[in-house]
Amino acid sequence: MFLKSALSFSRLEYLAMRFYPSSFILTIVQSFVTTGMWFFVSIFLKDYADKSLESYGGDFVSYMVIGVVFFQNAATIMTLPYQSISTAFWDKRLEVYNSSSYGIWAFISGRFIWTFLYQLIIQVGVLTFAVLIVGVNINANIPVIPLIAFYLCFVFTCFGFGLIGASNFFNLEVKQGREPFTWLVDVLARIFSGIYYPLAVLPIGIQFVSRIIPHTYALEGIRLVMLSGCGFENSIVRSNLLVMLGFAVFSMLFGIFALQKALDKAYKGNGVGMVV
Q1: DSSP states along 95-112
Q2: What is the pLDDT of residue 214?
Q3: Cα–Cα distance measured from residue 50 to residue 47, given in angstroms and rounded to the nearest whole number
Q4: Could you tell me if residue 126 is inside a domain?
Q5: pLDDT in tens, 26-52
Q6: Structural domain containing residue 235
């Protein structure tokens, strides 16, 4: 019953895209433009940065492109729960969803399923273009299972963080804009997780911050798999994947708990659809 309800919301997102495809097209264009912008930046800096990337094959351009593509997907997934609740709230649909057994959760899950699929399509398209047309280098023998494992752990970690952030819609009454939790995670990830530059360039005194951010482990693992062809035989791949699995499980469990508590609190107060 829950899955059927969630898939019905996914289908609504699909139908909306069919009737109004401009948003989907703009998302594709934005992904290509953002990746292309950082691609050109990496070309200018590659002579300096290549020296810090021996474990990835010494190719800063490929390092940058992979980091940007996967981070864009993570950022979209992380903001999804809050945006979903905010959209339903201002469209006067949140109270209606909450009146059914799985309404709000089915709505969020359905949008997650749809976003996961179309973001995956965009990622594959951007990476294919980067490899075949632009000349970005990836390993010819990519271990598929480690790559899928890192990707799924990364996605569910960000989705769990998004659920935690969505609880602020009720706990902190942040009804519009960007809520503080996912904003902080996003800022820390951009600075400390090695998306745009090798971690080695950070001052030694602050490199420890990188190790409390899941993006660091996910991107390091994905890059080792895609650029160096490392699989489970590599100790860094194994350890990073275990850390990411821990992040994914914890963030999902705590995210579900935090959002449900926030929903219960709102329901006992003025109601989930009431403007305070």
Answers
A1: HHHHTSSSHHHHHHHHHH
A2: 97
A3: 6
A4: yes
A5: 989 999 999 999 999 888 877 776 666
A6: 2-268
